[in-house]
Predict the structure.
Amino acid sequence: MWDKPTWLNWLANFLLVISFVAMLYAALFAVVHLPIFPLREVVVEGQLNHVNREQVKLIVAKHLKGNFFTLDLIKARNAFKKLPWARNVSLRRRWPDTLEVVIEEHQALARWGSIALVNTHGELFYAASNKELPVFLGPGDGVIEVASQYMEVSKSLKLADLTIATLALSPRRAWQVTTSNGMVIELGRVDIASRLDKFVRVYRNTIASLNMKVSYADLRYPNGFAVRKPVSASAVQTKVAETKSLEPNKHSAKSVKKSTKPSAKAGKSGHGKKQAAVSRA
């Protein structure tokens, strides 16, 4: 090999290129890590109603390490995604010293029981909200199904000026609605849309005009539905009063028994016999 000049020239040229690349990489590495390219500004954009300035400042101070070139965008993105209301986050460098952060917040649709919130995409997220929201109940794999059904049921009930307070899906996939005025509506498992349309049409044209409060509606009948009025407090009190009036009076019973017993003196005189006979009658 050493007596072949051509091979030696190729080897020398190869080593020269490797040395040049290594020197260039070292120079670029040194330049990139110099403090002359600091990240001076973080711009946060998006329709932000829950992400605040203090939260952003905390993430910048704790997780954004490095300068304009060395900042790890993946780690920075993951740090912003840990915000409770952040659904999607995108980051982009803008020369010479700015980081642009675009945050898409969750739009709360309902509560999932008492443990989480549901957004408009049917996704669970864990955040605090003081907003009055409907409550979804159902099996763990039914979040998207309940959110989708809510849109349809809510649209139908709106025609009757009814709003949903609770929408429940049972393990057998049967639906139940509780409205904001306390009415419970059993929808069953099939023909949900047609059953609801029929009920809304009758409720809007007939029941609502009667000013009659309905506490329960069962829509699971093939050719109609059943409604039930709430039991008033006065009716309950009347029933209780009637029940008490039918109970035997123990004191009066004792007095009757005592009056029916003939006295010893009455048995000896005719007047006493007559009185005893009247008492027995």
Notes: The chain has eight helices and twelve strands.
